[in-house]
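Q: I'm a student working through a structural biology exercise. My instructor gave each of us a protein and asked us to get a predicted structure, then write a short paragraph describing it. Mine is BMP/retinoic acid-inducible neural-specific protein 3. I'm not confident about reading structure output yet, so if you can add a plain explanation after the tokens, that would really help. Here is the sequence I was given:
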Amino acid sequence: MLSQGLCKPEVAESTEHYIGFETDLQDLEMKYLLQKTDRRIEVHAIFISNDMRLNSWFDPSWRKRMLLTLKSNKYKSSLVHMILGLSLQICLTKNSTLEPVLAVYVNPFGGSHSESWFMPVNENNFPDWERTKLDLPLQCYNWTLTLGNKWKTFFETVHIYLRSRIKSNGPNGNESIYYEPLEFIDPSRNLGYMKINNIQVFGYSMHFDPEAIRDLILQLDYPYTQGSQDSALLQLLEIRDRVNKLSPPGQRRLDLFSCLLRHRLKLSTSEVVRIQSALQAFNAKLPNTVDYDTTKLCS
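A: Happy to help. First, here is the predicted structure for BMP/retinoic acid-inducible neural-specific protein 3. I'll explain a few features afterward.
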């Protein structure tokens, strides 16, 4: 870009027209709403499970799988979604010796379960579940996982796996030992039953214009004017970097941008590879830029 007789690196125009990233909520305001599990920041998702039903008692000896999904391409094609937290209300029958164990996988933009990443709860400074006992006749607890602004990320589907372990006193009496139910068979032991009253995902939805992004991609091959191809590449680079910046914690970022192209724009694998190659080649020509390696998530 020529400015006052000097050649300066061109900066991409705002990408807000194509995809939104931020909310108007401030950190303290968001933290307060999450602590109160305020319904104003609840993202309404569809609950699906073949193993159990909400508000119904079940035998927790075997692993239960459930998921919350948005079906955005069908119902919310002009939105992408950010997860800020997760909350479950779990109840046990009286004097039950069971302890719930939860594993969570997040799918950012759709596709199969294999295109989800495992949430590293209580690892490397990642948040842990907070349990709050409820004033009910049963043993009921609110299990809340708060990601907040620091750990927020895109989501389309949240997969939750629930298994149980048996809590028992250790030989010294002042420590707890956990057993898997199938490894600890004692007819006198009251395993009890379990139920989940509700599951909520907290976050917010943002503007998304797939047609406008497709138009940018079209300009890679058929530019409108001289220079519009470079402008389109700059904007796609900006979108790619901002999407991948919201990758979950890890040694390398996940390639969320390819997942966006694959599942929300419905591009073929070869088209995604071609676009990524064009962006890498263009980025290599820019002054003072450093590209980064990503880990493949979506096929």
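A: Here are two points you could use in your paragraph. The chain has seven helices and 16 strands. The CA atoms of residues 196 and 284 lie 51 Å apart. It's a good idea to check both against the output above yourself.
Q: Great, thank you!
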